[in-house]
Write a structure and sequence with these properties.
Alpha-Beta Plaits, 5-stranded antiparallel sheet, about 30% helix, about 30% strand, elongated
Length: about 160
């Protein structure tokens, strides 16, 4: 195995990184995103008053489903057998939006950061889609990796 994993081969062409010689370890990643909205829109989400149905439950399912399809969405991303994916969605304390936290886990040779980020982003997009009839001004913001563990590169924890 090369000491330097890269998506570019010796000829400068894009390639999927060869992780075949990497050890299988328990890997976990947490990502977050925020959907900013009017307080009345947040209440409509929380109280399940949207004409399209239970947006929070639908967004959770959409995020989980999307995480399982990450390698179909992100070029050169490895397909992974995920062992667990959760998507939690809660209103911000000031009711200015919804906070999404997605967690992806696997026992594998490569990390699950992209799966967690995909889950959070698709959950946010689903909330936007289901709420846009009442609040077209919603904004999806702060999509980012919060933490990751497992693997050769070590752990990561975003500073608060």
């Amino acid at each position: 195995m090369s000491d330097r994993l890269t998506h570019v081969d010796a000829q400068g062409r894009a390639q999927m990184v060869d992780v075949g010689d990497k050890a299988v370890t328990r890997r976990r990643a947490v990502a977050e995103a925020t959907v900013l909205a009017l307080p009345t829109t947040v209440e409509a989400f929380v109280e399940d008053r949207l004409k399209k149905g239970d947006a929070i439950a639908t967004a959770r399912i959409a995020g989980i489903m999307a995480s399982k399809r990450t390698s179909d969405l992100i070029p050169l991303c490895h397909p992974l057998a995920l062992t667990k994916v959760t998507v939690d969605i809660d209103p911000l304390s000031d009711r200015s939006g919804l906070h999404i936290v997605a967690t992806a886990e696997t026992n594998g040779q490569t990390g699950v950061e992209m799966e967690a980020l995909t889950a959070a982003s698709v959950a946010a997009l689903t909330l936007y889609d289901m709420g846009k009839a009442v609040d077209r001004g919603m904004t999806i913001t702060d999509l980012r990796l919060v933490a990751k563990s497992g693997g050769k590169s070590g752990d990561f924890m975003r500073a608060p």
